[in-house]
Amino acid sequence: FGGGISVSSGAPLITGCELKSNHAYRGSGAFLYLDASSISSCTFTNNNGYSDSEDGGGICAQNSRANISSTAFTGNVVDSCSYDNMGGAVCVFGAASNLGFSNCTFSNNRASACVACRGGAVAIGVSGDETGSASFVGCAFSNNTTNHAGGAIAMNSYGVLTIDTCTFSGNDANFGGAIMMNEFGTVGTLLIDDCRFVGNSVGSNGGAIWSRQNAANMQRTITDSVFSLNSASQGGALWLEGSASLLRIGACAFCINDPTAIAGQVLVTEPNCYTSLCADNNGNGFPDSCEITQ
């Protein structure tokens, strides 16, 4: 594990490093285990796993509480022909895992070449261990891909996924172009605030977000966010399914999502805006035609 760096039960400070073209079964760039690492101003580029069931082309974190800031993940890949490669750039699992990402970029990462690859950039939870949490603040996800679910992020965990002030653009998957939330309907929490989803696409459902919810105590909330120019067969912005599907959404704007903005049941907590005019001339991130108080 850990083609470039392997950390176990430590708290190293890793700054200004370049991890490039490394190979491993898990964590081709770095493997983090039971640690509290701090990684900042680093680059993880073109790292690639080499065996079946690869996880985390850039970083794989098990029971980790690492903090990662101002770091770029570019062109990392998991692509061996197995059932469930996870996380082109990052894989997080383990009940004690709670990784924090701030001001990071994820671009052109890929999870592919298998039956059910998940998380073109990030996967939380793996087969047999659907645990782990992560938070993303001020991060950008662009042009990440997977042939199955979650072009940018795939969440298959009982934990918490928090996303604040992030952008998702041009990500692609079969379902959940930007985010896939719990394909198996397991208990998990999704909190999204002040994010932008632009031009994400899928071959099936959920151009920006695909979510399955089979228990009433699953918290799913999206606030102060914009969905524009996302596309899918159904649910251009959001596809919501499951026996207890109910996503809370408020103060969001939807602009030209194809074929419709939302497919599924939502609970509106604040008024939302639906428009065909996407221009944002005042630069606040919302279409000018949407008068939503920020």
Notable traits:
mainly beta, 10-stranded parallel sheet, single chain, 294 residues, globular, 39% strand, 35 strands
What's the SSE blueprint?
Blueprint lengths: L4 E4 L4 E3 L2 E3 L9 E4 L4 E3 L2 E3 L13 E4 L4 E3 L2 E3 L2 E2 L11 E4 L4 E5 L2 E3 L2 E2 L10 E3 L8 E5 L2 E3 L2 E2 L6 E3 L4 E5 L2 E3 L2 E2 L5 E3 L7 E5 L2 E3 L2 E2 L6 E4 L7 E4 L2 E3 L9 E4 L5 E4 L2 E3 L6 E2 L2 E3 L4 E3 L19
Parallel strand pairs: 1-4, 2-5, 3-6, 4-7, 5-8, 6-9, 7-11, 8-12, 9-13, 10-14, 11-15, 12-16, 13-17, 14-18, 15-19, 16-20, 17-21, 19-23, 20-24, 21-25, 22-26, 23-27, 24-28, 25-29, 27-30, 28-31, 29-32, 30-33, 31-34, 32-35
Average of the residue pLDDT scores: 91
Distance between the termini: 45 Å
Q: What coarse outline follows from CA principal-axis ratios?
A: globular
Largest beta-sheet characterization: 10 strands, parallel
Number of helices: 0
Cross-sheet strand order for the largest sheet: 1-4-7-11-15-19-23-27-30-33
- Give the percentage of residues in beta strands: 35-45%
Number of strands: 35
Rounded to an integer in angstroms, the radius of gyration calculated over CA atoms is 18 Å
Q: Helix coverage percent of residues? A: under 10%
Low-confidence stretches: none
Secondary-structure-based class equals mainly beta
